Amino acid sequence: MIVGLLWLLGCQLAGTAIVELTGIPLPGPVVGMLLLFVVLLLRRRDGEDDPVIQVGDYFLSHLQLFFIPAGVGVIAYVAVIRDSAVPIVVALLGSWILGLATVGWVLGLFLRRVPSVAGTEGAPGEEIE
Questions:
Q1: How many whole angstroms separate alpha carbon 34 and alpha carbon 14?
Q2: What pLDDT digit, counting tens, does each position of 51-106 carry?
Q3: How many CB atoms lie within 10 A of CB 36?
Q4: Which of 19, 41, 63, 97 could form a disulfide with 28 if both were Cys (CB 3.0 to 4.6 A apart)?
Q5: How far is CA 110 from CA 9, 60, 102, 114, in A?
Q6: What is the pLDDT of the chain when averaged over all its residues?
Q7: Domain-by-domain residue ranges, the chain?
Q8: Tens digits of per-residue pLDDT, 34-47?
Q9: Alpha carbons 122 and 112: distance in angstroms, whole number
Q10: How far is CA 50 from CA 14, 57, 98, 114, 119, in A?
Q11: What pTM was computed for the model?
Q12: Cα dihedral across residues 34, 37, 39, 41: positive or negative
């Protein structure tokens, strides 16, 4: 499990170093995740015995613990959130509606491009010959 943790931390450190050296406007851990993704694609897979899979499964089983710092941060800034409640709610609802509309629009584009399967035309419940 230590080897898997070293892979994760090493890729995060490499991502942070790449961001610091190049000045690209991305967080270092995001670049590290992309780097880890590429490394995992290129290296030999060991299946369930892979140390990165083992440490990933361990972290996923304790995922709820990673939300505690965010919850504490929200409680610490409750006065600021209370003062800005209306803009926060408008931003949340607006982004949700925009995201929903975008997904619907993209789905419509994809459905127009996919040819219909032969024999599936007709009204629901109508028998197909």
A1: 11
A2: 888 898 999 999 888 888 888 888 888 999 999 999 999 999 999 999 999 999 99
A3: 19
A4: 19
A5: 39, 33, 12, 6
A6: 87
A7: 1-61, 68-114
A8: 999 998 888 877 67
A9: 17
A10: 21, 11, 40, 38, 46
A11: 0.55
A12: negative
As separate numbers, helices (DSSP H) first and strands (DSSP E) second, the chain gives 6, 0
Alpha carbon 78 to chain centroid, angstroms: 27
Q: What is the rounded CA–CA span in Å between residue 20 and residue 18? A: 5
* Single-letter code of the amino acid located at 46: D
pLDDT at 31 over 80: yes
Token pair of 111 as six digits = 């459905």
Count CB-CB contacts under 10 A for residue 55: 19
Name the token pair of 24.
């690209």
Copy the structure tokens of residue 82. 């209370």
User: Do you know the residue count of the chain?
Assistant: 129
